[in-house]
Amino acid sequence: MNIPILYRSVLLSLFIAVFFLSGCGKKKPTGFPGVFPCKITVTKGGEALPNITVMLVPEIPANNLSITGDTDQNGEATIRTMSSSYSAEGAPEGKFVVILLDNVSIDLPEVAEEEYESWLPQKRQDWDADIAKKIEASRIVPGSLRNPIQSQASITVTSSGGEAMIDIAEHR
Prior knowledge:
- The chain is an alpha+beta fold and 172 residues long.
- The chain has four helices and ten strands; from the N terminus they run αββββββββαααββ.
- The strands form two sheets. A six-stranded antiparallel sheet has the order 7-6-4-3-8-9, with no helix packed on it. Strands 1, 2, 5 and 10 form a four-stranded mixed sheet that branches.
- The protein has a domain at 32-104 and 139-170: Immunoglobulin-like.
- 17% of the residues are buried.
- Strand 6 and strand 7 (87-89) form a beta hairpin.
- The N and C termini lie far apart (65 Å).
- The protein has helices spanning 2-24, 113-118, 121-138, 143-146, and strands spanning 38-44, 47-48, 52-58, 66-70, 76-78, 80-82, 87-89, 94-102, 154-157, 162-167.
């Protein structure tokens, strides 16, 4: 009776192993840039900030590339460069504006859509404004670091790699 379950488990394990191992040999597509080690540490007043998404916006835009990482418990983000079909650890050479995004989870009050739609416009406006205030109050990262036009945080990645420390207490 347990043999079929064991047999299915073994087959499933083999399938998963083949699936993941076959992806490891994926070749870098034509046009995908060379990447170099890149680490960004995010702190607030010297204290590590985990769960912050770090995005690098290139000074010279690159087609279809996403250059991101998430900070760990030490506030360190290891950057990855991704296209629609390929991903590699590191960032291409160049100058980048650094954008930080909160990954904040807050409990917001809920209201059924039908109820919300039945409210007068002023009540809906007040509700929306209250929710926006609660979201903004829960943010850790200052607005200037969430906006690529305003951010003063930057990094230059060379063939030797790139490393930066950003203390959000120094930004508004």
